[in-house]
Design a protein that fits this description.
By secondary structure, the chain is of the alpha+beta class. The chain contains four helices and ten strands; from the N terminus they run H-E-E-E-H-E-E-E-E-H-E-E-H-E. Helix content is 28%, strand content 28%. Strand 1 and strand 2 form a beta hairpin. The radius of gyration is 26 Å and the shape is elongated. The structure holds iron/sulfur cluster. The site of iron/sulfur cluster (SF4) has 11 residues, from helix 2.
Length: 200
């Protein structure tokens, strides 16, 4: 088939229209048969994106206690309905759509602790109590081993009580109040290398 400039534009225009309809949740197999609206019979629950400190607004559509859709909140003053690629995929943190469009729990979601020992090539499953005890033990060991109590400043011993061996990173999955408490705890232990992806 010979492709003229006009037929090329026609073809790409049709493809773009098809993609747009698909993106709107419409069945492109037949122009007249609309795909059932995902947000039908749902309750709108506004929330905030948990990925970063920008704090974009998201509307979750919930049906029978299950989130069936998540999209940018057009009334939110920060993002005005837009979401970046991370926020746009937030639905998949918990769910995916199966073949017929029904949301199911994302089978790739990690629900168990996976631990890879130093030098090991495979992960092994551990329980949460083990993980929390191990984290606490390693933090305490490192802190006790590396704590510097005083430094010499011009012949005078100045108390610093600090360790350079631990780096503390806050999480955008936590609230500002939780990150405030993490920060306090890190300071209390003498950690001075503290950061957060949103610089909280
Ligand atoms: S990750 Fe993206 S969508 Fe989420 S708050 Fe940050 S900028 Fe907004």
């Amino acid at each position: 088939m010979q492709l003229t400039r006009r037929s090329f534009l026609k073809l790409t225009g049709a493809a773009a229209a098809t993609a747009t309809l698909a993106g709107m949740g419409l069945n492109t197999a037949s122009a007249s048969a609309a795909y059932p609206l995902r947000i039908k019979y749902t309750k709108e629950v506004p929330t905030i994106c948990t990925y970063c400190g920008v704090g974009c607004g998201i509307i979750c559509s919930v049906r029978d206690g299950v989130i069936v859709n998540a999209e940018g909140d057009p009334d939110h003053p920060i993002n005005e309905g837009t979401l970046c690629s991370k926020g746009s995929s937030i639905f998949n943190v918990s769910y995916i759509y199966e073949e017929k469009g029904k949301p199911i729990v994302n089978p790739k979601r990690l629900t168990k602790v996976l631990y890879r020992a130093p030098g090991a090539s495979d992960y092994e499953e551990k329980d949460w109590d083990w993980a929390l005890d191990e984290i606490a033990k390693r933090i305490k060991d490192t802190r006790d081993r590396t704590l510097v109590e005083t430094v010499d400043v011009g012949g005078r011993q100045v108390t610093v009580n600090r360790t350079n061996a631990i780096n503390w990173l806050g999480s955008a999955w936590c609230t500002g109040e939780e990150n405030y408490l993490f920060h306090k705890m890190a300071r209390a232990m003498g950690v001075i290398n503290i950061d957060h992806c949103a610089r909280l």
